[in-house]
């Protein structure tokens, strides 16, 4: 056979993109595990006969787990929004494996990330906030699959968590006791996370007047923070919610998020 010579720059590009693709696959697989974890947490935190507040008080460890998942999710998506190169590198990878130009190069990676896996990952990373989208879908599926469970059990659990976070953030007594800025960020991310889930699951969403979440209060709490800390969170509210642009969303709330 004829020897194919690979341009060194192409080999370099390929060698630098492969470890990245493996990492992206880890995160993608992790999102599938989060989806399962979230659904079983919701199951525990919404089952009768307790009210959402009773659940959150009785099962603080579970509520904390739920909060940790939301915190990770928003943190991940904030970082992802700042790295547009992820999609470019990934499409380079897909082009390369589909053309299979690299005849005499190491293609072990294909057993890890084949074409079908690459397509699924590509859809995942094409989302503005991929992890959050995964969680919203998981919550929506949870509600759809549990027909006998009143929807309020789920939405009340989410709105209760949102208001706990909001109260903590707007009460100087609490915030002065936060050991670090991290605790503040944790609270803000969890608050935004549950708002977005609520907005996806509640038929009228989080923004209209009948919503159990005080959206004006929540947005105000975010806007009182240094802009750098909340830019990603405000973007998540703009781009990953479902009902923000509905007719029923009060103008002042839309203006706050412009």
Automatic annotation (TrEMBL):
Keywords: Lipoprotein, Membrane. Residues 9-254 form the CYRIA/CYRIB Rac1 binding domain. This is Family with sequence similarity 49 member A. Pfam families: CYRIA-B_Rac1-bd (PF07159). It is a lipid-anchor. GO terms for molecular function: small GTPase binding. PANTHER family: GH09096P. GO terms for cellular component: membrane. It is found in: Membrane. GO terms for biological process: regulation of actin filament polymerization. It comes from the Eukaryota. InterPro entries: CYRI (IPR039789), CYRIA/CYRIB_Rac1-bd (IPR009828).
């Amino acid at each position: 056979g004829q020897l194919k010579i690979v341009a060194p720059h192409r080999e370099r590009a390929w060698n630098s993109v492969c470890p990245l693709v493996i990492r992206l696959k880890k995160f993608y697989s992790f999102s599938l595990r989060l989806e399962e974890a979230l659904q079983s947490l919701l199951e525990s935190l919404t089952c009768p006969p307790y009210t959402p507040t009773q659940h959150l008080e009785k099962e603080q460890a579970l509520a904390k787990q739920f909060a940790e998942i939301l915190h990770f999710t928003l943190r991940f998506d904030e970082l992802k929004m700042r790295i547009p190169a992820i999609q470019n590198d990934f499409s380079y990878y897909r082009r390369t494996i589909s053309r299979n130009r690299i005849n005499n190069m190491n293609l072990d990676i294909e057993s890890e990330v084949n074409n079908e896996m690459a397509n699924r990952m590509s859809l995942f990373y094409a989302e503005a906030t991929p992890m959050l989208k995964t969680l919203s879908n998981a919550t929506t599926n949870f509600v759809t699959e549990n027909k006998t469970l009143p929807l309020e059990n789920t939405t009340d659990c989410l709105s209760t968590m949102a208001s706990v976070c909001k109260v903590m953030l707007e009460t100087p007594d609490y915030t002065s006791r936060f050991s670090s800025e991290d605790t503040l960020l944790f609270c803000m991310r969890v608050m935004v996370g549950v708002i977005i889930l609520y907005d996806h699951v509640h038929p009228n969403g989080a923004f209209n007047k009948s919503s159990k979440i005080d959206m004006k209060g929540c947005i105000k709490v975010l806007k009182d923070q240094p802009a750098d800390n909340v830019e990603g969170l405000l973007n998540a509210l703009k781009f990953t919610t479902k009902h923000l642009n509905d007719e029923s969303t009060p103008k002042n709330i839309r203006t706050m998020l412009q």
